[in-house]
Every structure is written in structure tokens, then in C-alpha cells.
Amino acid sequence: MNAWESGRSAEAPPPSVLHGYAEGGLVRRLVYGVAVVATAGAVVAGIRYARYRDAVLRDPAQVYAPVEPPPGTAQARPRTLSWTAGRARLGLARRPPSATRILLPDKMIELAPDAAHAQIEVEVRDGRTIHLTTLVGEIVARPRDPTDAPAATRP
To answer: Are 126 and 89 in the same domain?
Structure first.
């Protein structure tokens, strides 16, 4: 028994291939709407993130610059670092409060005249420098002079 014999009226057209497509119109509109809203949201989020990154790169974190007392006063911070034993990664820089000189038991390390900063890796054993590598920047290493201040000893 087909649709015509089941009592449908003669005015109704027979079911076609597009009948199922028309029934899914509401669901299809919902899926398309969600896709459009998600795309617009992703575009807005991308634009806001790009602006945020530009602002961060334009205005980096505030540089720590403590107020230094005038040189020659009793409160002036020493800018010499002493290292007597062990392995370390140490840094030098021209700007205060960084160290400008590192005293090892047998060597004195200073920044090269044209360098703003430097970083070294050093290992000291039994009063001798075993390993010294410049990681960043340029340094001047020279033998320790007896008139240099003695390296502090660990307690």
C-alpha cells in the first residue's frame, strides 16, 4: 500500500528527495549560526590578543633601579663579587647594583671596556680556577694582584 492508497488527499504532492532536506532546516540553521558566532568570537579574540602582545612588547616590565648613595660614603654598595670555591654562573654589568668585578682566588675578572654586560661560568677548586667560560658578552681576565682585596672565605 502506498501513500496514495493510505488515504492521503490527492492535493498533497508525493514525498520527494528534498523532503528530508526541508525537515532539517532548523538544525542546519542552528549549526550555521553557531559556526558564524564562533568564527566572529575567534576573530575578536585574535585581535585583542595581538593588541595585548603589542602593548606588552612596547612597555616591558619596569627596570629595577635602586637609589644608590653617592660614591665614597660608608653606605655605598660594593660592586665586587668574591668567589672562593665551587661551580657558579655569575654576571657582570655596568649599571648599578650589578657587580663590575669578580675576584677568584687566582684571577680577577672584569668587563671588557666596550661591553655593557657579561655572564661567565666558573669552577674553583682548592684555590685554583679549574674552568672559566664566557657565556655572554666580553670579559678581561688577568692574574690576581697581591694588592687586590682578599676573596672572602665561606664560614
So the answer is: yes
